[in-house]
Amino acid sequence: MNRRRTQVPTADSPCPCGGGLPFGECCGPLLDGADAPTAERLMRSRYTAFAVGNVEHLNRTWHPAGRPARLELDPGQRWTGLEILRTTGGGFLHTEGTVEFRAHYTYDGVEDTLHEHSRFVREDGRWVYLDALP
After folding, report:
1. pTM value?
2. pLDDT tens per residue, range 57-89
3. Taking the CA of residue 42 as centre, how many other CA atoms within 13 Å lie in the half-sphere pointing to its CB?
4. Fewest beta carbons less than 10 Å away: which of 6, 23, 39, 128?
């Protein structure tokens, strides 16, 4: 399923990642193919991709070693908020970094939270999601 599940925000709408910028200045350009400058920005854009159903961005920003052969998003799941708890590395001059976050969602009307400590690396100069730390 590669179609978007929810309407993509307009450029002036608040970005789903909660970063405080309009979608067109925050995750919008990254979902359109721009490189993320930091691991945290990539994390935020991946959250937004889950929220709007952009499977193409998720696949493009997933390290080949861990990328699933097929990714289908569940239409019963709605992402409702993102909290960045902590980051290490992942800056302009780094080659790896981590982002610990809580992503809030509802699934078939039940509220829940995904808590993850994600690893990111630079692959050919671009930040990509590697995996989740245990």
Report:
1. 0.93
2. 999 999 999 999 999 999 899 999 999 999 999
3. 32
4. 6
